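User: Structure please.
Assistant: Input sequence and predicted structure:
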Amino acid sequence: MNQAYAGLADWFEYLNSDCDYDSWSQYLYERLRSLGVAGGRGLEIGCGSGRFCRDFARRGFDMTGYDVSPAMLAKAEQLSAKEGVFPHYILSDARKIKTLGGRADFALCVNDCVNYLPQADIPRFFARVAGCLKKGGTFLFDVSSAYKLREVLGNNSFCEDREEVAYMWFNTLHADRVEMDFTLFVRGEDGRFSREDERHVQYIHEEDDLRRAAEGAGFSVRAVEGALGDDADTMRQNFLCVRE
């Protein structure tokens, strides 16, 4: 069983192309502007293959991306060079991040990164983020909701077969988490498929617990919204926070 995202790194953005990254990036940008961020230094925690880092770098922000997966960061570097933008990328556990060259104007932590942190680690993580931001700095983070993990993903399975790649995804629900087993099949140049197996664990976080942890770290929670600001959405929760 491989480390999480060792096999998926090359395919992550491709397999998630239906999530509409352009609209998602625009949503984040608009929310930052609504909270007074118009430029400066930004951090993306759990940046993966760097899609949002690249988008914000194109908008003129000085971006630093952090991720715990070497394979994801290698892909981020490759895609950034290909697109001619150059965020900084740092290999780091989300709970241990620190800034280089002073505090940042904002931080992003989106697309389920917080779900990978156990409940007991959330207060320490928020305190670490607060320490990386200027006073008045903005922190936008999201989670897959407790409803999504319990009722949609938990004890369920999914599969997809594309020309270049196919996957099977099996989930087991526990009281505080969902354990996810992925099997990925990738077509090689000779037409034969190679197989990669990896396990992910996503933890279930309740909105009230996240609010208390954020406020305990010195953040004011200005809003909690569904996906792309849709309050009718029950699958994703976006938290808009400002460091007091």
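The mean pLDDT is 94.
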